[in-house]
Design goal:
Number of strands: 0
Distance between the termini: 72 Å
Helix content: over 70%
Shape: flat
Oligomer: single chain
Strand content: under 5%
Radius of gyration: 29 Å
Largest sheet: none
Structural class: mainly alpha
Number of helices: 4
C-alpha cells in the first residue's frame, strides 16, 4: 500500500500515465477506422447473402405453386427427412445410454470416448435432418398459402 502511495506522488508515474493514455487514444482511432471498415464489408456481404436467399426461396415457392408433382416430391422429401431424423435421434439416445453404461461399469476410456463421439455425430445428424424437414415443410406451407 505504501508503494502505491509513493507511486501516486511520483511525477514519473503521472507522465507514464499521460503517455500511455495518448498512445491508447491514437491506437483506438486507427483500430476504430479498421473495425468500421471490416464491419461495413461484413454487413454488406450479409445483406447480399440474405437478399439472394430470399430470391431463391421466392423462386422455389413459385415453382412449387405451379407444379403439383414438385410439391409431391418435396412432401416425400420432408417425410424422408423426418424419418431419418427420428432414426438418428433413437440411435443417439441409444449411444447416450451406452455411454452411461460404460461410465458406470468402468469400461476403458477409449471405448467411453468412442461412445461420446458417436453420440455427438448422431445428434448432429438428428438436428440436420430435422432442419431440412422444417425447411421443406415451411416451403410447402408457403406454396399452399397456409
Amino acid at each position: 500500500m505504501d508503494d502505491l502511495i509513493t507511486d501516486l506522488r511520483s511525477p514519473q508515474w503521472w507522465m507514464s500515465v499521460v503517455v500511455a493514455g495518448i498512445l491508447v487514444n491514437l491506437a483506438a482511432g486507427y483500430l476504430l477506422k479498421l473495425l468500421d471498415a471490416r464491419l461495413a464489408k461484413a454487413s454488406s456481404w450479409w445483406r447480399r447473402k440474405r437478399e439472394s436467399a430470399v430470391r431463391e426461396r421466392a423462386a422455389a415457392v413459385d415453382a412449387l405453386q405451379t407444379d403439383r408433382n414438385q410439391q409431391a416430391r418435396l412432401e416425400a422429401s420432408e417425410i424422408r427427412y423426418r424419418l431419418r431424423s427420428l432414426v438418428s435421434l433413437v440411435q443417439a439416445i441409444g449411444m447416450g445410454l451406452l455411454f452411461v453404461l460404460f461410465a458406470t461399469v468402468g469400461a476403458p476410456a477409449w471405448l467411453t470416448m468412442f461412445a461420446v463421439a458417436l453420440f455427438a455425430i448422431l445428434w448432429l445428424g438428428y438436428v440436420h435432418q430435422s432442419r431440412l424437414a422444417d425447411r421443406a415443410a415451411s416451403l410447402l406451407a408457403q406454396a399452399q398459402g397456409e
